[in-house]
Structures are given as structure tokens and as C-alpha cells.
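Sample intake sheet
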Amino acid sequence: MTRALGFILLFALTNASLLLLFPFTAYRFLTAAVLYAGGTFLMLVMLFHPRDRWFLDPQTDVPCRDHPCVALTFDDGPTPDVTPRVLDILREKNARATFFVVGRQVERHPDLARRVSAEGHVVGNHTYSHPPLFCFLSPRRLHEEIERAQDVVFGATSVRPRHFARRWASGTRSSRRPSIGSTSRSSYGGSGRTTRGP
């Protein structure tokens, strides 16, 4: 709630800077323009920058039932050059992971997606085409990306993903990601790294 109020206050102050235009002078115009541009830039970063978590609570712990653990996630696959090696290592170490797969890659390599699922790993949705400007997709296009990937993954594995990972990763901080359906993804770590448990 505090973050939302902070954003509303920034919005109000940014727009209030336009009041500096009256009475009009070149100095007032320059001051108002700098304040307005700065406030607008800050709001855009807060809303759209991939590493910003202004409106999301960071998730840094993985529930492990009173013992140390890590959560492994892998994005952007499956690929024939990496996924089999990762699966072999996980089998050797008796470890499980979450694989956020791209629908188009699953269409190309359905056998790898089936192997991921058959070996007991969680299969998550990482969009169908992995669009580079994910944060600017319309709600309709985003829904199409997610649903198409859902159908492709289900067709290959007979499992419908319950977790979704955005196209852009959160960088060095873990974050709660939107989930599909009612299941939260918060029990899984961030993109491509381990997250220590309590």
C-alpha cells in the first residue's frame, strides 16, 4: 500500500510541476520541463523496467520445512545442446528443478519436454515465442502467448503448466512471478539461479 501511495504522490508532484509555468518565463519553463521529464522517466522505470520490483514483493526465501535447500529454475528451453546435459546432472545428483519452457522450443523438441516431465521436474510456461518486448504486449497478445504455450506444452507432455515466468528476468533479485490458475509460483526460485532457503 505504501508503494502505491508513493507512486500516486510522484504522479501528483510530477503533474503539479506544470504549475511552475505560470507566470510564464524561460527559467520557469526550463524548471518545469526538467521536473516533469524527470518524474515521468522515474514513473516509467517503476512501471516497466525489467529489474524494478516497485509493485511486487521480493521473494527471497524458499519454504523448505526447517532444513536448508535451493530451488533451481531453467528458462528458454528445451534445447538439444543444453537440456539433456542438465537433466543428466540433475538425475545424477537426485535433484529436481523447474523448467520454464518456450512453446516454440517445445514444438521443435517435444521429446525433451516429455523427458523433463517424465523425470519429475516441474514444467512451467515461458510464453510461446519469447517476445523481446514482453512488457509492451497488449493484454490480448499476452493472453495468446500464454495460452498457445499452454496448449503446446500439454500436447507434448500431457501436463498443463501451473506456473508462468515473464519474458524478462529479474536480474540479481528474486521475485514473485504471476502464476497460472490459483497456484502461486513463490515456492520456486528466480530465473536461472539458486535461492537459499530459510
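Comment: The longest strand covers residues 73-77. Residues 58-198 form a domain with the TIM Barrel fold (CATH 3.20.20.370).
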